[in-house]
Amino acid sequence: MKNQIVQDNLDYTLFSWAKQGGLNPINAHRAKGSYIFDRDGKKYLDFSSQLMNVNIGHGNQRITQAVAKQMQELSYVYPGMATEVRGILGKKLAQITPGNLTKTFFTLGGAEAVENAIKLARIYSKRHKIISHYRSYHGATYGAISAGGDPRKFAIDDQAVNNFVHVENPYFYRCPWNSSTIEECGERAAAHLERVIQFENPDAVAAILFEGESGSSGCIKYPPMYLKKVRDICDKYGILMIIDETMSGFGRTGKMFGVDHHKVTPDIMCMAKGLTSGYLPLGAMVVTNTIANHFDDHPMLLGLTYSAHPVACAAAIENIKIIEEEGLVGKAEKAGRYIEDQVARLSERHPSIGDFRNTGLLGCIELVKNRKTKEPTTPWNAKPDQMEATLKMAGKIRELGMFTFVRWNWIFIAPPLNVSTDEMDEGLDIISKAVAIADQYCN
Questions:
Q1: pLDDT in tens, 88-137
Q2: What domains are there in the chain, each with its CATH number?
């Protein structure tokens, strides 16, 4: 039966982001806390909360009970009806999001939240250009993947959505302007952003779309005051600020939202993932009262069949209660400091560790062949024949009983927010054994 499960998956389903031949997926059976168990009983420490979304950990039966209760009462109505859970969740999001973000449009996930934010920004502003970072990921739908700079979009570049403009990140470790401090890198990145806006015609720019904190593009930390400068630039030119908190929201960074570290309020905030901790699909786009009031007298031409799905809303309400009642935001901040200290010690033993960027429990080790030249162990967007070290490290991590996101010369550290110290030590020990492979490529 175990083999048949895997074979049926391979024969009758398609797997994301992968060549379909030669796949060997983990045959997942059950999950609890920070661990996934396969059907042979082997356990895997989940050190990236699957795809950085299972913030409360696996198998929390409070979500099961909340979902079952909602389904017994009301499983689905079309989005034009009012439901108790829709109102409760909308009110809660208005309370926990910064500033005057007050009204929510619910979507199916993060990509759809970004899609609708882009559409709303264009409708509201009557402008058409969207500016985003080259090193960013906002989802895989046509609009969202065109907005991002992730190289996975290259396969459909000839059909990309128009009027997206990209700018360089304030990536201090590899600063495009060779800055001597992270603050200087931030200043130069903000100046670069403003120049691009001027080149592109400020009156044509509808919105700037940035992540709350960088995620799968390498956890690139924003320099101090960078997002405040972006906010000022938006206000100067009448541009909307969209912040995508899909990965960085709901405690992941040691604050409820990534922008809370920077004390800015965007005009539109996108969220998903940690909104339900992945227990059910749900995304959201929250807007300021200024934008919301505009649509009191103008039709808001956005819609999804499953918008504000009551069962997903019930899961989100209970998930946020768990985050708050168990103090998971504070736990993420404390755990992040512990991991930073431990990775600093690993850096003393492993010459391949070039940099570690982390905010709360959203972190990434960057591996290099030489710390002075910063030559990456595996190049960015590496071709298959350049992936030897990465594949060896990923294989070693799986062999040792851990799941985490390994990409090019990055190993991500993003366990559930309630991860224990023992679990962190276990994960870091496995990472150390994997990084020893990268050490062999140092010169």
A1: 999 999 999 999 999 999 999 999 999 999 999 999 999 999 999 999 99
A2: 2-56+327-439 (3.90.1150.10), 62-325 (3.40.640.10)
